[in-house]
Amino acid sequence: MPWSRFDRTYEAPTGGRQITYCDALREGIEQAMSHDPRVFAIGLDADDKFGVFGSMRDLTHKDRVLGTPISENAMTGVALGAALSGLRPIHVHLRVDFMLTAMDQIVNYVAKWQDMFGRQGKVPLVIRAIVGRGWGCGAQHSQTLHGWFAHSPGLKVVTPSTPYDATGLLLASIADDSPVVFLEHRWLYKNTGEVPSELYTLPLGKANVLHRGERLTVVANSLAAMHALTAIEQHGLDVDLIDPRTIKPLDLDNIIASVQRTGRLMVVDYDFPFGGFGAEVVAAVTERSFDALRQPPVRLGFPDRGMPSSGVLERTYYPTPERLAQAMTSMLLGEVVRS
Amino acid sequence: MTRPHTITRERGLRLLRTMRTIRQASERIAALYPTNVMETPVHLCIGQEAVAAGICHHLQDRDQLFLGHRTHGPAMAKGLGLRPLFAELYGRTTGCSRGFGGSMHLYDPEHGLPGSSAIVGGSIALAVGAGLAAQLQKQDFLGVAWFGDAATNAGVCYESMNFAALRGLPVLFVCEDNGYSNVMPKSVHSAHDIETLAKVFMPTVAVDGTDALATFAAAGEAIASIRQGGGPRFLHCQTKRWMKHQGHEKCDIVTVDRERDCPIHKLEAFLRGSGLASGAELAQTACEIEAAIDDAIAFASASPFPTPELLEA
Ligand SMILES: Cc1ncc(C[n+]2csc(CCOP(=O)(O)OP(=O)(O)O)c2C)c(N)n1
Fold first, then answer.
1. pTM of full prediction above 0.90
2. Which of A161, A264, B218, B295 is the 20 to 30 Å CA partner of B190?
3. Among B182, B190, B310, whose Cβ lies nearest the Cβ of A313?
4. List of E strands, A244-326
C-alpha cells in the first residue's frame, strides 16, 4: 500500500507557500496521480478546457482524466465497478445537484457495498462535487446537501474550508479504502492559504479550531466556517470556532469539550435545516452534554425552501458574515436567537 | 431535401414573427447581459429559432411542453409573452415564475408550459407523464419533451421513450440537436446515432432545424399522427448554436455561416422570392417586435422586486 507511508498529520503550516484553494485541489490530484498509477479522474466535462473550474487543468497524467456523457447514474456505477476492480477513481461533478441523478448508485450501491458483504472488501472511491450558488442559479443549481449524504451509512463526507485542508483531506480521501463524498464550495476556490508542497494527508474525522474563545462555541464547515471566522474577527467576538472539516466521521469530542468550556452552542450550517447537519450537532451535544448548556442551542442556515432566483431574494436567503455576527452577538448577550 | 414548400402567406408571416421575436429578444438579452440587470444564467437560442417556431405553431395551449435549461425560444413560441419573460429575467414579481425561477425555470400553465428543469434529462419523463394523463383521462392533448442532443445520453431518455412506446402515449419527443454539450461535440458524447436510436422505439423523422418550413411540415405530420392515436413520435432537428453554451458571447467553437445557416434569412428569402411578402413588410415586422421588446423591458424595469417576506410564505 503505497499510501500508508504518508499517513501522518501535519501541523497547520506557518510562513509557508500560499496557494489558492483551487490550486491546492489541483496539486492534491496531481500528487495522487503521480504517486499512485491506480488513481484516475472521471466525470462529465472533467477533461474539457475549463478543467473543472481550474482544479484539474493541465494535469500531467491527462490519460487518466476521462470525460463522460450526461450519464451520472451509470457513471457512478462505472466508477464503483472500477474501484472494485483495482483502481482508485475520483468521480467529479461540476455541481452537487447533478449528483442527485446518481442517488440510486450512491446510496444503494456505493454506500452499501462494504456493509452488505460484511465489510470484507475495499471501496476506494472519491466522489468530488462542487457546491455553487449565486447569479440566480436557482433551486436546481445551488444546493449543498452535505447533511443528506452524511445521513447515509457508508459514506464519509468531507467539506474542506481552507487550501491546507483541501489538499490534505483530498489526499486522505483518495488514500481511504471506503467511499468519500468530497464537497468543495465554489466560493472558496479563490481563497489563498498556506499549503506545504510535499505530499501530506490530514485525518478524516478530526476537527480544526479556527478561532479560540471562551463564551460561545460555533460549529461551522466549508464556506460557513470562513463566514463565521470573518464575523468573529471583524467584531472581535469571544467565540470558539470549530470547523469539523469532515461532517462524517464527526469529531464530537472536540465540539463537546468546547461547549463544556463556553456553555453555548451555535451551528452555522449552509444547508437545508430539517434533519440536517446542524440538527445532528445540536442533538448530539444535547444528548451528551445537556448540563453544560446555559442557553438553548441555535442553528443558522438556509430557509426550509428551494433557492429563489431573483438577486433580491438570493441576498435574503443566504446568511452573510454580518448576519452571523449579529446572531452571535445576540447570543452572547443572552438573548433568544431564532434558528 | 429539395421538396418545394407550400405555405400560406399568413402562416409564413407568423412563423417569421415568432422567429424574429426569439432572435431579437435574445439579441437584446445578449446586449444587456453585461450590464448585470439580469442576474441569471442564460442559454440563448440564437440560430435555433426555426425549431421552436416550426414545432410550436402546431401546438395548442392545452399541449404540455416540458423544457430543459435552454428555454427562451420554445417558451416564446409556445405563447409566453415578452413581458413575463423579461420580468422573470430581471428577477421581478411580475415574472412568469415571480422571480423565483430565472431563465432556466419558466412557468406559464395557461400556454401549456408547466415548468422547465435545469437538470438535463429529467423533464423528458414529465412530458411522458403528461401523455399518460391525456391517455388516462381520454383527453386530446400531447406531452412534448424538448431536449438537446446530449440529453440522449441520460438513462431517463431511454426509459421515457420505452414507456411512451409501450403504452402508445401521445408524446412528441423533440431533440434540438445543436451538436454540442457545452464545448463537447456530439462525436465525443454519443456513440449512438440519435435517429437510429429513437427508431428502436418509435417513428422518427430527421429534419433540417434551420429551415422553418421543413420543420413546420415534419412537425405537422408527426403531431397529426399523434393526435390520431398513433402513439409517440420523435423529431430530430439538426441546428446550430450561434452563442456560447451560456451567456451573451458568440460561440467560438461552432462555425456559422450567418447567411446560409440563418433560419430567419432563409424564410425571409423564401417569402420575398415567392412573392408572399415584400422587403418593406419584413422590415416593418422587425420594427414592431423591437417596440414590443422595448415595452417588455420598460415593464420589467418598472416592476417591483420580490420582498424577503415571500421566502417565508
Ligand atoms: C444531470 C446534469 N448534468 C450536467 C448538467 C450540466 N449541463 C447543463 S447543460 C449541459 C449540456 C447539455 O447539452 P444538450 O442536452 O445537447 O443541450 P444544449 O445545451 O445543447 O441545448 C450540461 C452538461 C446538468 N444541467 N444536468
1. yes
2. B218
3. B310
4. 246-248, 265-269, 298-301
